[in-house]
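Records of this kind hold a single protein each, on a pair of labelled lines. Below, a sample record shows both lines together.
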Amino acid sequence: MRGSWTARGGPARPHLRKATATTAMEAKANVFPPHSDDGYRQVLPGVRLKALAHGERMLMTEFRLVAGHCLPRHSHPQEQTGYLVSGHLRLSIGEETFDALPGGSWYVPADVEHGAEVLQDTIAIEVFSPVREDYLPPHDE
C-alpha cells in the first residue's frame, strides 16, 4: 500500500499483518463507521445531528443546520471543539461572538454557556470529551 501509514507512524505492511482478536477498546468504540446519509436525528427545529466515530472518552458528531434557526445558549460538562465544513454560523461562547465561515474552528470549555445563529445552511463537525451520551446512536446506549 504505497503511501499508507500505520497509527504508530510507520509504513503500513499489510503482508505482515496477522488477524488478531478485537481489543476491548475496539469492542466499545465505533472505530471505523461507514459513510451513510442515514442516522441523522432532529434535536431542535432546523438542527439535525449524527454521531460519527467515538470511543470511551471522545465523540465526533456532524451537525446539519438550516438557515434562520438557532442553537439556544446552553452549557454542558463536556469540552467541545468544532470545525465549519460549509455555511455560516454566528457563535457566542461565553462573552465572545465569532462569525464562523468554512474552515473556521472553535473551542468551548466545559460548563461555559454557548449558542449559535445559523446564517446559512451549515454543516459542522464537533468533538465532545468526555462523550455526550445523549448524542450516541440508540444501539450504542
Summary: The longest strand covers residues 114-129. The helical segments are 24-28. Confidence is low (pLDDT under 50) at residues 1-27. The chain has one domain: 34-140.
